[in-house]
Sequence to fold (86 residues):
Amino acid sequence: MNLIMRIPDDLAERLSASGDIERQALEALAVEAYRTGRLTKPELRRLLGFATRGALDGFLQARDAYEPYSAAEIERERRDVQRLSF
Fold:
């Protein structure tokens, strides 16, 4: 799928000063979709073309995008830590 975005020329020039604006837009869309749970890590890796999970993990870490946890998962981990504590 091709996507066309209309950006005023002066803003596009400023946005593209730091690199490939098309890649920046794709990465921003992908990270937001991952954060909201609409894309999984394997899907994100395929979309962005990363060869390894480690490369994807580094990409996500640099953008403070961590695996989404539900409240139930957090509570389960808290109980596990309490149970393992002496």
